[in-house]
């Protein structure tokens, strides 16, 4: 029999106590066990970003991590970010700017986009300038670089960028 472990996590604000096969990825826990199918499986190998969720405030590829490693963690998925009746500002901006076509990559894009603005606001150094001492710029290039782990087969990148810049603007992030 496969080894199992107990794990307790908070997912979208709800406590979950489960006993899981040690080999179950966080992505499969979300989709297969908890039926939170907003988080998508694209490649299952860390290459597309469709499975991006927020764990303890940081974005990760949920396909690349085992669920049992997240005992005590707080996980937020797209279902915890907004609903059709109460869109998160980033979701609303994606709608307003046509930041998607098929929508498959969108939950991961939205999770990443929110985290990117938090990373910039928190002063996490620029990937583009490589300057560890200056605050990161909120440039289109910087956002493209920070979003580069989230692929879009439909090529909706330009519209997503507009959406993210708009949210940054309304949040008062410096240009
Ligand atoms: Fe996780 Fe592609 S499904 S990165
Ligand atoms: Fe289709 Fe991005 S909207 S993959």
Task: Give the structure's gist in a few sentences.
With 175 residues, the protein is of the alpha+beta class.
Write up what this structure looks like:
The chain has 6 helices and 5 strands. With 175 residues, it is of the alpha+beta class. A hairpin with a 2-residue loop joins strand 1 and strand 2. The model has no long low-confidence stretch (mean pLDDT 95). One FE2/S2 (inorganic) cluster (FES) binds next to loops. One FE2/S2 (inorganic) cluster binds next to loops. This is Aldehyde dehydrogenase iron-sulfur subunit. It comes from Paracoccus suum. InterPro entries: 2Fe-2S-bd (IPR002888), 2Fe-2S-bd_dom_sf (IPR036884), 2Fe-2S_ferredoxin-like_sf (IPR036010), 2Fe-2S_ferredoxin-type (IPR001041), 2Fe2S_fd_BS (IPR006058), Aldehyde_Oxdr_Iron-Sulfur (IPR052914), Beta-grasp_dom_sf (IPR012675). GO terms for molecular function: 2 iron, 2 sulfur cluster binding; metal ion binding; oxidoreductase activity, acting on the aldehyde or oxo group of donors.
